[in-house]
């Protein structure tokens, strides 16, 4: 599966797990075709030509996204597009509490993704009390660098989103994916606006995800813009 991020001034919108996103107003949605007569990579190439600013590559979208085939799918996609490809590093669906063995898998997958040309990586980890797992994140960030890193929608499960955002800023994450801790970006728009207003640094960008729709953009734009200078 793919999550396509596309620039929509003045918002940067990351569309993932969206069942019915209209193909207008800068929004794009695509699911990896799976069993299809089309050659793999063609959908990515089409969205790249259409103006997609970044591709987030993952498997298991029904589970919220898991690590894709790094040695296979990533290489094919990289051959087909000219935009940055960010790879999800998540060994399984479910919660965001990881065992030592799972952490080893995540580190190995991150190294392989870097080796095979990933332009950025996407991961997230929490503690049992719903806070950012700073120790684990620091360990994974050390493996992922110098690539840019996005904290994925584990953010929507945190106990205190405003505190969590400050933690991510201090850790050095460049982006955070969120639907405003709600079932969809439209439902979570009030929190998304608060997060955007809290960001006082150009080094982290809240990216709206999970069923953003064109009709929400004017409302989102009425708050401090979530822009990205890339």
From TrEMBL:
Coiled coil: none annotated. Signal peptide: none annotated. It holds the Pfam family CutC. GO terms for molecular function: copper ion binding. PANTHER family: COPPER HOMEOSTASIS PROTEIN CUTC, COPPER HOMEOSTASIS PROTEIN CUTC HOMOLOG. Belongs to the CutC family. This is Copper homeostasis protein cutC homolog. The gene is CUTC.
């Amino acid at each position: 599966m793919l999550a396509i991020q596309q620039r929509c001034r003045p918002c940067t919108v990351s569309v993932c797990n969206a069942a019915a996103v209209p193909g207008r107003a800068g929004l794009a949605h695509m699911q990896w075709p799976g069993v299809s007569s089309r050659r793999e990579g063609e959908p990515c190439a089409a969205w790249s030509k259409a103006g997609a600013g970044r591709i987030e590559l993952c498997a298991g979208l029904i589970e919220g996204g898991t690590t894709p085939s790094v040695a296979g799918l990533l290489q094919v996609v990289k051959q087909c597009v000219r935009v940055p490809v960010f790879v999800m590093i998540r060994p399984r669906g479910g919660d965001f509490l990881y065992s030592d063995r799972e952490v080893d898998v995540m580190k190995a997958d991150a190294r392989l993704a870097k080796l095979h040309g990933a332009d950025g990586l996407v991961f997230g980890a929490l503690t049992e009390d719903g806070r950012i797992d700073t120790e684990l994140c620091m360990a994974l960030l050390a493996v992922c660098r110098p690539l840019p890193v996005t904290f994925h929608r584990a953010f929507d499960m945190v106990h205190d989103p405003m505190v969590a955002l400050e933690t991510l800023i201090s850790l050095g994450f460049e982006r955070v994916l969120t639907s405003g801790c709600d079932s969809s970006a439209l439902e979570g728009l009030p929190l998304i606006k608060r997060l955007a207003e809290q960001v006082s640094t150009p080094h982290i960008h809240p990216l709206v995800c999970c069923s953003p729709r064109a009709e929400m953009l004017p409302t989102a734009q009425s708050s401090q813009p979530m822009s990205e200078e890339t």
